[in-house]
Amino acid sequence: MSMSVVNSMLSALKACQNDIGTGMDIVTEVALDLVETEGNEEDIKELEEMMLDSAKLDREINCFVEAVEQMTAQARQQPPEAMFTLKNQVKEHFARLQERFSDSDLHRHSKVVSFNESVRNSRTQANPSATENREEDLDEDIQVTQSQVNFTCPLTQVEMVNPVKNKKCNHYYDYEAVLGMIRSKVIQKKNLRCPVVGCGNTNVKESDLVKDAAMKRMIQNKSGMKK
Ligand SMILES: [Zn+2]
Questions:
Q1: What does the pLDDT look like over 87-141, one tens digit per residue?
Q2: Distance from the CA of 145 to the center of ligand 1, in angstroms?
Q3: Residue 87 and residue 106: Cα distance in Å, rounded?
Q4: Which of 10, 16, 191, 199: disulfide with 203, CB 3.0–4.6 Å?
């Protein structure tokens, strides 16, 4: 592998990274259109997943470019034979660089952050009164008993698939939905209020969530009976 091959490969990767960035901007615009036209919540979630996937790809390219640059710089200072092991060195270094990150870091990718912010702002603009009323309802410190539990996730408004119980206030949410909310709040350095209307729990934490297999079975039985 000659240096000119390495260099042209790196510039191709960087061009590819630009395209990923453009793609992420387009996805964000599509999401905003969806919010404005009160589109399907599921679709917006799917777009968020696309953003996270793109962020991952972008990060992988960063790591790879960094690995190649560092390893080729090292190899230049060594005897020519060093070039033979370059490929493996890059591979190993790339793996080490990737280990520094976890999937939750992807939520901090600048374009993912701006995606979430734009969607949130657009929602508030589209329906300012709904947001206000919601805040008021949540401020009332009413304890809700377990008998009021239903099978609908307060976040997604659809039947829960993986119900988890908040052991602080006994409310149920769909695991993926609540985890996503907690993580996006963490990035904003804010607490997540329990979305159940009237609940006084102002700090929903991941550590308060317990998987509820019994609840899951109940939901499955119920939907089984419907068929
Ligand atoms: Zn609650």
A1: 888 999 999 998 888 888 899 898 999 899 888 888 877 666 554 444 444 433 3
A2: 10
A3: 27
A4: 191
How far does residue 37's CA lie from ligand 1's centre (Å)?
30
Q: How many angstroms is it from 201 CA to the middle of ligand 1?
A: 5
CA pair distance 157, 42, nearest whole angstrom = 10
Dihedral sign (CA 179, 163, 146, 210): negative
Distance 196 CA to ligand 1 centre (A): 5
| Span from the CA of 149 to the centroid of ligand 1 (angstroms) | 10
User: How distant, in Å, are the alpha carbons of 29, 56, 59, 62, 211 from that of 115?
Assistant: 9, 15, 17, 20, 30
Mean pLDDT over 10-27 rounds to 92
Give the Cα separation of 35 and 120 in Å (integer).
Answer: 9
Residue 50 has φ and ψ, to the nearest 5°, of: -60, -40
User: pLDDT tens-digit profile of 142-201?
Assistant: 333 333 447 889 898 888 999 999 999 999 999 999 999 999 999 999 999 999 888 899
Q: How far is the CA of 171 from the centre of ligand 1 (A)?
A: 5
CA angle (66, 67, 72) in 5-degree steps? 105
- 195 C-alpha to center of ligand 1: Å? 7
What is the Cα–Cα distance from 172 to 164, expressed in whole angstroms?
6
